[in-house]
Amino acid sequence: MNSDFVYKGTKASLLTKHCKERVIKPVFEKATGCEIIVESQFDTDLFGTFTREIPRQGTQIEAARMKAQKGMELLGTALGLASEGSFGAHPATPFLPWNREIVFLTDRINKIEIFGEYAGCETNFSSMEVKSLTEAEAFARKAGFPEHFLVINTKDEEKKWIKGIQTWEKLKEIVTWSLKKSKYGSITLETDMRANANPTRMLNILKATENLIQKINQKCPRCETIGFAVADFKSGLPCESCGLPTGEIMAEIYKCQKCSYTMEVLVGKDKADPGRCPFCNP
Ligand SMILES: [Zn+2]
Ligand SMILES: [Zn+2]
């Protein structure tokens, strides 16, 4: 093994009950030299579920940090890894679905935290109210079923959620049964967003892991501590038309978590679109 590996001989916990080690473990171990120990018995649903029975506590970053720390506590490791995803509408184009994945690392050796990120439209995240099996099957085809599993919201108080539907036979059986039972004559089908049920999401977690590795490998130019990454942004890019500062980002600010050294990197644009200017386009 190369002695340049930042975590050679170190153990990292990874708290996941949805098989995220499939994508995180191989690349992370290969890039850093650490050994990942998976903790899959702990019920991470306690930190929140996508099907909303348990709301997530805090922000996405805070939830990922809590999981990473729980894993370290359970396994007694110096490094803790965890991932947390969120889904919703695209921030600028609300009719497009959006996925943000965070892979979080707590490093007690260097006393720092680093997270990798993926954010984009690559997701099948969607839901639909259906009144017939035909409608349900059409939704399933669009959602990439059966490689991507589905969940059903029966709207029934007693058995509201049926999860992990992954064959056409099962889909037919459950949809027929729950439509017959439904007081409303309809049920809601949703894409299953748990990592082991959703290969597209799994791929996004891999991308976030790669981003984490890239950040780990960035070293502080002053003290050489790893994880020298963007910590803040500087806005105020001047408007192309009137020259006044806008809310657009002008530079990224890198910061070392150890010695607090900061570095400003210009984003490469020197003028903002007047459409983004509060004076030209109030
Ligand atoms: Zn430093
Ligand atoms: Zn302007």
How would you sum up this structure in a few lines?
This protein has 282 residues and is α+β, with helices and mostly antiparallel strands. Helices cover 25% and strands 28% of the residues. The termini are far apart.
- Output the CATH class name of the largest domain: Alpha Beta
Shape: flat
Which runs of at least 5 residues are low in confidence (pLDDT < 50)? none
Small molecules bound in the structure, each named once? zinc ion
Structural class: alpha+beta
CATH homolog superfamily of the largest domain: B12-dependent dehydatase associated subunit
* Rg, Å, rounded: 22 Å
**Count of extended strands:** 12
| CATH level 3 topology of the largest domain | Rossmann fold
Terminus-to-terminus distance: 58 Å
> What is the CATH architecture descriptor of the largest domain?
3-Layer(aba) Sandwich
Mean pLDDT: 93
Range of helix content: 10-25%
> How many distinct folded domains?
3
Which properties best describe this structure?
alpha+beta; 3 domains; about 280 residues; binds zinc ion; 12 strands; four-stranded antiparallel sheet; five-stranded mixed sheet; about 30% strand; flat
Word description of this protein:
This protein is α+β, with helices and mostly antiparallel strands and 282 residues long. The chain folds into three domains: 11-123 and 197-217, 3-Layer(aba) Sandwich (Rossmann fold); 127-192; 231-276, no CATH class. The protein has five helices and twelve strands. It has helices at 21-32, 60-75, 133-142, 168-181, 199-216, and strands at 11-15, 35-39, 79-89, 97-107, 112-120, 127-130, 150-153, 161-165, 187-191, 229-235, 249-255, 262-266. It has a five-stranded mixed β-sheet with strand order 2-1-3-4-5, with helices on both faces. A four-stranded antiparallel β-sheet has the order 6-9-7-8, covered by helices on one side. Strand 1 (11-15), helix 1 and strand 2 (35-39) form a beta-alpha-beta unit. Helix 1 (21-32) runs parallel beside helix 5 (199-216). The longest helix has 18 residues, at 199-216. The protein is flat and about 65 Å long. It binds zinc ion (ZN) (2 copies). The site of one zinc ion (ZN) has 8 residues, from loops. Residues 220, 222-223, 225, 256, 258-259, 261 line the site of one zinc ion.
